[in-house]
Design brief:
Layout lengths: L3 E5 L9 E4 L20 E4 L2 E5 L13 H4 L5 E6 L14 E4 L1 E9 L3 E5 L5 E7 L6 E8 L1 E3 L4 H6 L3 E2 L3 E3 L7 E9 L5 E4 L1 E5 L1 E7 L4 E6 L2 E4 L5 E4 L3 E12 L3 H11 L3 E5 L10 E12 L4 E10 L2
Antiparallel strand pairs: 1-17, 1-22, 2-7, 3-4, 4-5, 6-15, 7-14, 8-13, 8-16, 9-10, 9-14, 11-12, 17-21, 18-21, 19-20, 21-24, 22-23, 23-24
Length: 306
């Protein structure tokens, strides 16, 4: 079966679209205009966490950029709340739960789901043709990546699990309901960095030689005495790939590439589990080469987001 280079531009998930979840939003208290926050005090507003940068911080809206970057810095944006971390297009800010997590979304037309930054053993998906409507698609499967090759590996290496998962082939409807559950045994920690839905577009037949390049944002700090300290940072994966396309489709493919610019996208070289390492989430750039009247080529580079 041919492998296809595909791109998924995610639908932005807004508050009305999240109809239910088992993940509470109790990280900190909601920001209150009359509360005085100490230095280092934290609060929540609009599904983000803010940390006070001064003592006696009162009446300063943390979501106001003037209070984050003005002459006096009152607040630091720490990041999304735990409930909303999987919707911020950053696989390293992960939503966390014990045992399992469930999300119910009401979203416009989609045919593909992408899960990234995963730590889970199993996924269950139910899609309805409208909120409260009829079930049109179900999926239930393990996230196991591979089985140990022998008894030694079974005893000492164990099983590994996928860090990302693509579920496609979903019949699209105007407004749909998605229920998704990730689980990791009875008490294991479940993590999910990205939950994205949208319409996936096949760009062309993937050519051999696609590359995935892991990267990290850590560094080595060397003090004046020569002592080296490894400071760990976030991780991501860059990717480059090319695909063969019919010249009659080149303009449409070029438009798809244009639409993907400056947007965090999922790019896949193959839907085969064995090539899941060639699926990444990040910012896309590329070019279309018009070779002959019959064939053209698209080349894509993805700057992986942490």
């Amino acid at each position: 079966m041919a492998a296809y280079l595909s791109v998924l531009i995610p639908t932005q998930i807004t508050e009305p679209m999240l109809t239910d979840t088992t993940v509470p939003e109790t990280d900190y208290g909601l920001w209150d205009v009359g509360t005085t926050y100490p230095l280092g005090g934290r609060c929540m507003k609009e599904h983000r966490i803010y940390e006070s940068q001064i003592a006696g911080n009162v009446g300063k809206d943390p979501a106001d950029l003037n209070n984050q970057f003005g002459t006096v810095v009152y607040w630091l944006d720490i990041g999304p709340t735990n409930r909303w971390a999987l919707f911020d297009n950053d696989t390293s800010t992960q939503t966390s739960a014990v045992g399992s997590m469930t999300y119910v979304l009401s979203a416009k037309t989609f045919n593909t789901i992408y899960l990234g930054g995963l730590q889970a053993q199993h996924v269950d998906i139910v899609v309805k043709n409208e909120p409260g409507g009829d079930v049109v698609f179900t999926y239930s499967g393990t996230l196991q990546a591979n089985r140990p090759s022998d008894y030694y590996a079974y005893c000492f290496s164990g099983f590994s699990f996928l860090k990302s998962k693509i579920v496609s082939g979903i019949p699209p409807y105007a407004t749909m309901e998605l229920t998704i559950t990730l689980s990791n045994g009875a008490s294991g920690t479940v993590l999910c960095g990205v939950l994205a839905v949208g319409l996936i577009q096949k760009l062309g037949r993937t050519q051999q030689g696609a590359k995935a390049k892991p990267k990290n944002f850590g560094y080595v700090d060397i003090d004046k005495y020569g002592k080296a300290t490894i400071v760990k940072g976030k991780k991501a994966t860059d990717m480059s790939a090319s695909a063969k396309i019919d010249s009659s489709e080149a303009r449409e493919v070029q438009e798809a590439l244009q639409n993907a610019l400056q947007t965090a996208c999922m790019v896949s070289c193959s839907d085969s589990a064995g090539y899941s390492g060639l699926n990444t989430f990040g910012l896309v750039s590329g070019e279309v080469t018009y070779k002959t009247d019959e064939t053209s080529e698209i080349s894509i580079d993805v700057e992986g987001l942490s």
